[in-house]
Amino acid sequence: MKLNNIKQRWKDEQPVLNGWLSIASSFSAEIMAAQGYDSLTIDLQHGFVGYDEAKIMLQAMRASGVAPMVRVPWLEPGIIMKALDAGAWGIICPMVNNAEQAQALVSCVRYPPLGSRSFGPTRVTFSAGQDYGQHADEQVVCFAMIETAEAFARLEEIVATPGLDGVYIGPADLTLGLTGRKYRTGFDREEPEIVDAIKHILTVAHRAGKKVGLHNGTAAYAAKAVEWGFDLVTVSNDVQLLRSAAAASVQQFRELQGSETSFASATKTGGY
User: Fold this and answer.
1) How confident is the prediction along the chain (272 residues), in pLDDT tens digits per residue?
2) Is 46 a catalytic residue?
3) What are the extents of the domains in the chain?
4) Which H helix or E strand runs over 139?
């Protein structure tokens, strides 16, 4: 069986750079996969992506060697198992609030006796290897998202869950969960109480031997998170990268057009 690039990076004590796919397109997934990320996550929760599109996006990423993950819409066994059978090397599950839910998540991801995952790796035996069934529990990554006040309060019991590889922080929802609408929503938190909460999650999870991931809006903040000790950092997503690149291109054109128009006007009137 092929080895999961995420776990190989961790074995080498290296952080994982994760990309995020919210656009339902195999071509955009293929483009993102060729840019040098260690892993890419298809977002079935908030992304504009359904299961049928996710399948061909997983196929499009195969040639790059990037490790594909899926953020599932919810803690629901059917979609978790189907995402794994389609070829996901990792599952990120939102809104895991307590040990019982963390155990249920692990059960969906792991085969018996560790869990209750049903055996039927339809595509993943082609993408990962015919011996997938024997090694999947060692290679597949299982992340529970910590993003509510309840999850924060019950963090120690969540990270004590056997078979859970780590926790993934959604800073936007975590901020809402801990402070309501006191602060703006979004990533790259600078408020001391939220930064302290993020670092607390990191400390507690590491103490339990779990990995920790963080969603970031910018590369600069992600680099800072790695300095703090984060094991996986996500930088932006395909929607925001497309928006920012397009906006920068349009702005550059408008500025150049304006300067050329001003120069031409000044030349005609004898200016400068």
Assistant:
1) 999 999 999 999 999 999 999 999 999 999 999 999 999 999 999 999 999 999 999 999 999 999 999 999 999 999 999 999 999 999 999 999 999 999 999 999 999 999 999 999 999 999 999 999 999 999 999 999 999 999 999 999 999 999 999 999 999 999 999 999 899 989 999 999 999 999 999 999 999 999 999 999 999 999 999 999 999 999 999 999 999 999 999 999 999 998 766 545 545 554 43
2) yes
3) 5-236, 240-272
4) helix 132-139
Within 10 Å of residue 169's Cβ, how many Cβ atoms?
A: 28
244 by DSSP, 3-state: which?
A: helix
Cα separation, 263 vs 258, in Å, equals 9
Which is catalytic among the residues 46, 135, 200, 206?
Answer: 46
CATH superfamily for 5-236 is: Phosphoenolpyruvate-binding domains (3.20.20.60)
Strands 90-93 and 141-146, sheet pairing: parallel
Give the containing element (helix H, strand E) for 167: strand 166-169
Is 0.70 surpassed by the pTM of this model?
Answer: yes
